[in-house]
Automatic annotation (TrEMBL), chains A, B:
Protein name: Winged helix-turn-helix transcriptional regulator
The species this protein was found in: Olivibacter oleidegradans
Domain of life: Bacteria
InterPro entries recorded: HTH_HxlR, WH-like_DNA-bd_sf, WH_DNA-bd_sf
Chain ranges of the HTH hxlR-type domain: 11-114
Keywords associated with the record: DNA-binding, Transcription, Transcription regulation
Keyword Cell membrane belongs to the record: no
Pfam families recorded: HxlR
Length: 122, 122
DNA sequence: CAGGATCCGGATTGATACTG
DNA sequence: CAGTATCAATCCGGATCCTG
């Protein structure tokens, strides 16, 4: 019941809210793509390298969905063979905190694993 | 190499870190389950109701994985027909921030949609 | 280079029935 | 109540080929 950040007090509300987010960011790749684009705009081929393991098909599919949802912007550049730059929108930037939180937890988790999981304070 | 909050400066590092998190929280349900259990311990049947849409099979499977990863704890209660209480562990609580961030974004997103998406500041 | 179309195997998940 | 087992449908996603 804090004010500040909207903090939801009800569990059911939280479930609904999380589902909403999931609908947009669900799947295996969207968060990764957003995270990358939060660092800098990239072209298709660059993303293909950065987002480890994604296939071309998946990448274009996910990019399209993100674009539809207004999280990223697509710009075709009139270069020699044609290149396409993807950049995050202002709205998309609202996800930066989220991606960072996820990444940070991942780091901490890894650190914990490497430490051999000592001090299990369960 | 900052101290404080580990803030990752490299995009590739972020991708790896996010993948680590995904391995633990991937799928459609784990975040929801964790979020619920962050509010209070619950029994199987309670979770089944709270986590809208999940099937019994999925619920028990996900719970098992979360338990293996040390995020939740399972306690069989010697009640009449037998009930099982699930509670979050200390380690699991480290995900609370994450679930809240996700939920808050979902709320904001919904608010934005309802507003008819005015002021598209793209 | 960007990305659509197609084919296809494997992973996910739901329904249902069953157990302790 | 808290699961497990089985079957079947679906979806995910990779490989490959093709276009502009």
């Amino acid at each position: 019941m804090k004010s500040e950040s909207i903090l939801i007090e009800d569990c059911s509300q939280t479930v609904l809210a999380i589902n909403d987010t999931m609908e947009i960011l669900g799947g295996k790749w969207k968060v990764l793509i957003i995270a990358c684009l939060c660092y800098q705009s990239m072209r298709y081929s660059e993303l293909l390298k950065k987002v480890q393991g994604i296939s071309g098909k998946m990448l274009s599919r996910e990019l399209k969905e993100l674009e539809v949802n207004g999280l990223i912007e697509r710009n075709v550049l009139a270069t020699s063979p044609v290149s396409v730059a993807y950049k995050i929108t202002e709205y998309g930037k609202s996800l930066k905190q989220l991606t960072q939180t996820i990444a940070e937890w991942g780091l901490q988790h890894r650190a914990r694993i490497l430490k051999g999981m000592r001090q299990e304070k369960v």
